[in-house]
């Protein structure tokens, strides 16, 4: 995909998401991307692998895992990208490593086994070409411990370093002949941060409904560090529909009657109308919690969420249960 259908109406904000597999762009940040696109920003996507190792996770898609999962997931990705409306999608073409608890089990020739500089140089070339002011990757631990998600973080961070270094020649990769580019703000996306789980879980119970998260909350309490709550929340309930369309485009991966659709959407829009991010690095002073990924960068900001104090229209979110001390992320 390379056609830019909206060039005439774009402003200078440029946002880039780096994702590991087809469907990650739908489950992490899709409504945010749609909101920025509608507000006139350029939003590009980098997809590292083809998702070839994905299982068939949707019972209503048939009962046999297709032989050519890679080709099917490429088509699903295309449909998802169209639903969200990304300006461009860059597919790196690495082979999905599959989910492995033990890194020693990751097969040779897959993304997570690739020497880090090879995919990082590709990401760096795309950063030089696209010149995003904001890049979104995953947390250092991947957000969940899939080897490709951990690799996604490593490759993005290394790609950012290579892209800005004038000593690094990248002429052999697409976009690498463009000028070096320093990305001033870098975030990690979250899918189910603790505050979102708790808000939706409690809201469903209060409404007398069953919560699909009961077991998960128990398990997280017992077995796993639930991870931090976001320090940046993008208000995007009006774009959940585009996110859902993108999710449904991944027919082999997402059960339309399953987990991802377990909360009535009218309730979800009220209980947690955000997508959450963790600020990994900023060249500018920021006040957390932020309500705009471009806050502090002297670029246009999203209109404030309805009902928020117009005095907060400088990109700051209303604090949610945490202190609002200024912080410098770096
Ligand atoms: Zn993934």
CATH homology superfamily name of the largest domain: LmbE-like
CATH topology category name of the largest domain: Rossmann fold
Low-confidence stretches: 1-10, 318-330
CATH architecture of the largest domain: 3-Layer(aba) Sandwich
Strand order of the largest sheet: 3-2-1-4-5-7-6
Report the C-alpha radius of gyration, rounded: 19 Å
Report the major sheet. Answer: 7 strands, mixed
What shape does the CA trace take? globular
- Give the termini distance in whole angstroms: 33 Å
> How many beta-strand segments?
9
Structural domain count:
2
* Overall pLDDT level: 88
Distinct helical segment count = 9
Helix content: 25-40%
- SSE run: EHHEHEHEHEHHEHHEEE
- Percent in strands: 5-15%
What structural class do you assign from the helix and strand content?
alpha/beta
Ligand inventory: zinc ion
**Which CATH class of the largest domain is shown?**
Alpha Beta
Describe the structure.
- Helix 3 links the parallel strand 2 and strand 3.
- The strands form two sheets. A seven-stranded mixed beta sheet has the order 3-2-1-4-5-7-6, with helices on both faces. A two-stranded antiparallel ribbon has the order 8-9.
- The protein is built from nine helices and nine strands.
- The relative contact order is 0.16.
- It folds into two domains: 294 residues, LmbE-like (Rossmann fold, 3-Layer(aba) Sandwich), CATH 3.40.50.10320; 34 residues, no CATH class.
- Helix 3 packs antiparallel against helix 8.
- The chain is globular.
- It has 330 residues and is an alpha/beta fold.
């Amino acid at each position: 995909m390379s056609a830019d259908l909206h060039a005439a109406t774009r402003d200078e904000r440029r946002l880039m998401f780096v994702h590991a597999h087809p469907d990650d762009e739908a489950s992490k940040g899709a409504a945010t991307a749609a909101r920025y696109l509608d507000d006139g920003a350029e939003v590009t996507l980098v997809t590292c692998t083809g998702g070839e190792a994905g299982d068939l996770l949707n019972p209503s898609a048939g009962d046999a895992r297709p032989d050519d999962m890679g080709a099917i997931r490429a088509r699903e990705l295309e449909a998802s990208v169209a639903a969200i409306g990304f300006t461009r999608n860059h597919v790196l073409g690495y082979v999905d490593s599959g989910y492995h608890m033990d890194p020693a089990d990751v097969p040779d020739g897959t993304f997570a086994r690739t020497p880090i500089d090879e995919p990082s140089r590709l990401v760096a070339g795309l950063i030089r070409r696209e010149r995003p002011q904001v890049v979104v990757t995953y947390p250092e631990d991947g957000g969940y411990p899939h080897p490709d998600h951990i690799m996604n973080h490593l490759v993005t961070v290394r790609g950012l370093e290579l892209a800005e270094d004038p000593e690094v020649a990248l002429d052999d990769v697409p976009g690498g002949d463009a000028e070096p580019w320093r990305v001033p703000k870098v975030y990690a996306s979250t899918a189910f941060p603790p505050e979102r789980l708790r808000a939706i879980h409690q809201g469903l119970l209060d409404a007398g409904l069953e919560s699909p998260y009961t077991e998960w909350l128990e398990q997280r309490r017992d077995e796993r560090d639930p991870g931090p709550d976001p320090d940046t929340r993008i208000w995007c309930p009006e774009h959940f529909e585009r996110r859902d369309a993108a999710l449904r485009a991944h027919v082999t991966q997402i059960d339309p009657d399953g987990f991802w659709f377990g909360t009535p959407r009218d309730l979800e829009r009220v209980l947690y109308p955000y997508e959450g991010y963790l600020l990994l690095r900023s060249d500018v002073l920021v006040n957390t919690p932020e309500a705009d990924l471009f806050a502090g960068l002297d670029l246009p900001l999203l209109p404030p969420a309805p009902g928020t104090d117009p005095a907060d229209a400088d990109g700051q979110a209303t604090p949610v249960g945490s202190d609002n001390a200024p912080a410098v992320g770096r």
